Amino acid sequence: MSKRGIRVFTQVMFLVLVTGCGSRSPIGTLTTPSDTLLPSASTPSLTTATASITSTFAVQTECVGTIPESTKDLVRSYVDQGLNVGIVVGIVTPCGTEIYAYGKTELSGGQPVDENTVFEIGSTGKAFTALLLADMVERNEVSFDDPIEQFLPSSVTVPTRDGRSITLIDLATHTSGLPNIPDNFAPTDMNNPYADYTVEQMYEAFAQISLKRSIGSQYKYSNFGMGLLGHILSLRSGMSYEELVVTRIANELGMPDTRITLTPEMKSRLAIGYRDGEPFPLWDIPTLAGAGALRSTVRDMLTFLAANMGLIESRLYEAMQVTHEPRFPVDASMEVGLAWHIRTLNDAQIVEHHGATGGYWSFAGFIKDKKTGVVVLTNTFHDIDEIGLSLLRDSMVQP
């Protein structure tokens, strides 16, 4: 493949973790932001549907009735039309949780998906990277305003602009000026594009960057920047990114299935990813792990949202609140905090993030005032954000 062909491919595929939370209409329907690198044709249509799919569902009954029939109908329609292979929806409120699952872990011979099914969560994992930063600030290990070159090898020349250095908080708020994709990103395996991108290549990428806008002045989504943030926090702590997440977040909150490296037992519960009706492999993201390398379950992600809303006690609560604070405008109805996107809808604030990899899509969002959180995970590269947003909108009118 030519260099241009590789570049075009990476523009299409780059972490469909890719564009973060794009602009949406007032009713919450996902629309593609002007700077997205995803073509509209990338979403599977009915022509790729697998009509013969067999599905089932499971309901967690701790808080029955929180997920309305309209949401369940929407989930079933996505699966029955062949748009998604399996979908798990979870909601957590002060009364408890309810989980609704429909579809299978695999088109042929798979098991019913449920709250313990393992999925890739893509860019939704950026919320974990931001929390690590906020927690390390609370621990006095770093400061938000620390320049990033402070943590990198002296041989690395980091771009500056107008005498201003990129800081840690610039990376966490997507205001660093760094591109979405490193210019030297050229995968050899198009089905696993991040596997061979090395730390040395990431460092070399800085030499090709000329910042086109003032640092800290404008939101511009950057997987490169968030992946770099995860790398820096790893260097500062002396732990790998996965060790940081597991030690400081997952173990703290009781999230045994939020990992990068799958245990044999987790592999037995893994949903096979699909794109355009065909199986799609897991992505390995060693260097830019902070941008979206995590795998998780709906049960674990509901625990994460419950902690963010204070429904369960946690040492991380104060750091979590810092990540929710709006810091820069994204568009007329949305601001960015530390990784999280904060959307104003009907006078309520929805804190959210979505993500995708080659064969998966995820959504996590919550309304702090209502203490209501929603997670939607699927093993198909097909947008399921509307399921999560509609459930949050419904919760706004509940007493």
Architecture overview:
The protein has 399 residues and is an alpha+beta fold. The chain has a single domain (3-140, 230-396), classed as DD-peptidase/beta-lactamase superfamily (Beta-lactamase), CATH 3.40.710.10. Helix content is 28%, strand content 17%. It has eleven helices and 13 strands. The strands form three sheets. The chain has a nine-stranded antiparallel sheet, with helices on both faces. A two-stranded antiparallel ribbon has the order 4-7. Strand 2 and strand 3 (96-103) form a beta hairpin. Helix 3 (126-138) packs across helix 6 (223-237) and helix 3 (126-138) crosses helix 7 (241-253). The radius of gyration is 20 Å and the shape is globular.
Element-level helix/strand string:
HEHEEEHHHHHHEEEHHEEEEEEH
* Helical amount: 25-40%
Number of strands: 13
Radius of gyration: 20 Å
Can you identify the CATH superfamily? DD-peptidase/beta-lactamase superfamily
> What low-confidence regions span 5 or more consecutive residues with pLDDT below 50?
1-14, 22-61
Strand content: 15-25%
Q: Roughly what is the average pLDDT, rounded to an integer? A: 87
- By CATH, the topology is Beta-lactamase
Topology of helices and strands:
Elements: H1 3-13, E1 57-60, H2 69-80, E2 86-93, E3 96-103, E4 119-120, H3 126-138, H4 168-172, H5 199-205, H6 223-237, H7 241-253, H8 264-267, E5 273-275, E6 278-280, E7 295-296, H9 298-308, H10 317-324, E8 328-331, E9 334-336, E10 341-345, E11 348-357, E12 360-367, E13 372-378, H11 385-396
Antiparallel strand pairs: 1-3, 2-3, 2-13, 4-7, 5-6, 8-9, 9-10, 10-11, 11-12, 12-13
Helix pairs in contact: 3-6, 3-7, 3-10
